[in-house]
Design brief:
alpha+beta, 8-stranded mixed sheet, 28% helix, 26% strand
Length: 203
């Protein structure tokens, strides 16, 4: 576990570390629903998807919790496999840009969400860097809504770059961008805000 300072006197610090995401899936999806604007029907669909993903033997998850145990952020992912649904959707877009090889030997960040009240405090950065620091793959890929959002900005500061844009997922209302970065992820420059690398158990 590693502590992350809150944004002010009334914002508690949080702890970033491994969690049993399957056991806390409803708490995690409550955070995602607020952060991502999901309705209950979408939450119900995503619950089954998350639990299925977590059956992967090499899936990893971290959570950010307040001192009283409230989950305020989470991240999870797994090594990419060509047969995975996400991979099959993005493959033609990457191939068109000469980036298909990114689907091999990459760790996929499947979800990363922080409750809006705890955003802009380095929690998302801490979650994703801690998760990827513990994997064996030499690079990471992810998808994000293809707009100039704070999330896209964060990913760029970590070293992610656009591999494909205007990627259309079935039933998704907006196009996505697929981004990739070499691991380890980029750290903040000397003199910037302090970054941290929380210890992550190998299990």
């Amino acid at each position: 576990m590693a502590a992350v300072s809150g944004g002010g006197a009334h914002t508690p610090s949080v702890l970033v570390g491994p969690i049993d995401l399957a056991a806390r899936v409803d708490e995690a999806l409550a955070v995602q629903a607020v952060a991502f604007g999901l309705g209950q029907n979408e939450v119900n669909v995503r619950r089954h998807i998350v639990l299925r993903h977590l059956e992967h033997p090499h899936a990893r998850a971290l959570g950010a919790t307040t001192p009283d145990g409230r989950l305020v952020g989470f991240v999870y992912g797994m090594p990419n496999e060509r047969g995975q649904w996400w991979s099959t959707v993005v493959e033609p877009y990457l191939r068109a840009n000469g980036c298909e090889h990114w689907l091999d030997d990459s760790f996929v960040i499947t979800e990363l969400h922080v409750h809006p009240k705890f955003q802009n405090q380095g929690i998302g950065r801490g979650l994703i860097t801690a998760l990827t620091d513990a994997v064996d793959q030499p690079r990471s890929i992810l998808s994000a809504i293809d707009t100039e959002s704070p999330a896209r900005g964060l990913y760029r500061t970590l070293g992610y770059r656009d591999l494909a844009r205007q990627v259309l997922f079935p039933s998704a209302p907006m196009p996505y961008a697929v981004m990739g970065a070499s691991l380890p992820l980029r750290r903040r420059a000397r003199g910037g805000p302090i970054d941290f690398r929380p210890p992550v158990s190998p299990g």
